[in-house]
Amino acid sequence: MQPFLMFQGRHAEKAMNFYVSLFDDGEVPEVTRWQKGEQGAEGSIKLARLRGAGQSVLASDSPVKHAFDFTSSWSFFVDCASDEEQRRLFAELSDGGGVLMPLDDYGFSKRFA
């Protein structure tokens, strides 16, 4: 199975570049773009693979308009080497976004977000 991020409104490339910038091993090794005459917006991401923190994730700009956007019912787990790395990643990932679980001790983990 492969995690897949579906974006609307040509946001996939910006999100991918942001995610890979956070990790030393971050990269976008594969990108296929929608071409003129195809279903998606020309030049937007048809399918791409990004890698970071040892994980591979697929992403796409959907050509179909949906009544939904991202859902909080799934998550990525990043095993950080230090508290500093965890604080840095939390700050960068939450900047401009909505935090559903602030970095804290929830009983099942000393520091979880």
TrEMBL record:
<dbReference type="Pfam" id="PF06983">
    <property type="entry name" value="3-dmu-9_3-mt"/>
</dbReference>
<dbReference type="InterPro" id="IPR028973">
    <property type="entry name" value="PhnB-like"/>
</dbReference>
<feature type="domain" description="PhnB-like">
    <location>
        <begin position="2"/>
        <end position="102"/>
    </location>
</feature>
<protein>
    <recommendedName>
        <fullName>PhnB-like domain-containing protein</fullName>
    </recommendedName>
</protein>
<dbReference type="InterPro" id="IPR029068">
    <property type="entry name" value="Glyas_Bleomycin-R_OHBP_Dase"/>
</dbReference>
<dbReference type="InterPro" id="IPR009725">
    <property type="entry name" value="3_dmu_93_MTrfase"/>
</dbReference>
